Amino acid sequence: MTDRRTEVRERYAAAAGTSCDPMIGEHGTCGDSYYDASELSELPAAVTSASLGCANPLTVADLHEGEVVLDLGSGAGLDVLLSARRVGPTGKAYGLDMTPEMLEVARSNQREAGVTNAEFLQGYIEDVPLPDGSVDVVLSNCVVNLSPDKDRVFAEAYRVLRPGGRLAIADIVADAEVDVITRARLSAESACLAGAAPRAAYEDGLRRAGFAHVSIEPTRTVTPGFSSAIVRAVKPA
């Protein structure tokens, strides 16, 4: 896992402050294109232009005033700052990222946006530095696919969610099992694609973690055999 983390950290450190996901290569699109323009207009250009996501998990997060939100792999902070606005002053939005350069960008964006109910934490999505049952919603945007231990990610998301809590993830999934040779080739081209789990395996992993009402809805074809998707699940009450 250490080598994988190092590779991802180096690529995202290099991407800090850029506008498109460097790991999807020619198939990548700017993450801010998935968001409502009126909502983005309320944030600094620096955060909207640095989005590295593959969809908009907030479309299914159904955030409410006073809720606590956690974004796994928060990058430049777009989903965190938008979530903080939606949950209001009585709520809070956490962003978790392992890359110091990205955290620096996110905190700068937070200061410029004047958002006070957000906090960015350094750590790994496989080992979340928050207590059990402390958040209402877990978000992520094109980051879980980068983890070599997705079962651990799902288990951590389940742990930090309160009973009845919701999972809303945008991610890259494979349409079917990817053979070793193809995965090795993709690894040299795109970490997002190389790390993508088959849809069925993704669903099984969430259910093993304890989630219910699991759904994975493809949103677009990234490249033949791979799709971006919106993933939803609920921690039983």
Shape: globular
Q: What's the alpha carbon Rg, rounded to whole Å?
A: 16 Å
Tell me the number of strands: 7
Beta fraction of the residues? 15-25%
Largest sheet: 7 strands, mixed
How confident overall, as mean pLDDT? 84
Residue ranges: pLDDT <50 for 5 or more in a row? Answer: 15-30
Give the N-to-C terminal Cα separation: 33 Å
> Structural class, from helix and strand content?
alpha/beta
Question: Major sheet: order of its strands?
Answer: 3-2-1-4-5-7-6
Classify the helix fraction into a percent range. Answer: 25-40%
Number of helices: 10
Note the run of SSEs as H and E.
Answer: HHHHEHEHEEHEHHHEE
Describe this structure in words.
By secondary structure, the chain is an alpha/beta fold. The protein has ten helices and seven strands. The protein has helices spanning 2-15, 37-40, 45-48, 58-61, 78-87, 100-113, 150-160, 180-189, 191-194, 199-209, and strands spanning 68-72, 92-97, 118-122, 135-141, 161-174, 212-223, 226-234. Strands 3-2-1-4-5-7-6 form a seven-stranded mixed β-sheet, sandwiched between helices. Helix 6 (100-113) links the parallel strand 2 (92-97) and strand 3 (118-122). The longest helix is centred in the first third of the chain and has 14 residues, at 2-15. It is globular, with a radius of gyration of 16 Å. It starts with a helix and ends with a strand.
Explain briefly what this protein structure is:
By secondary structure, the protein is an alpha/beta fold. It has ten helices and seven strands.
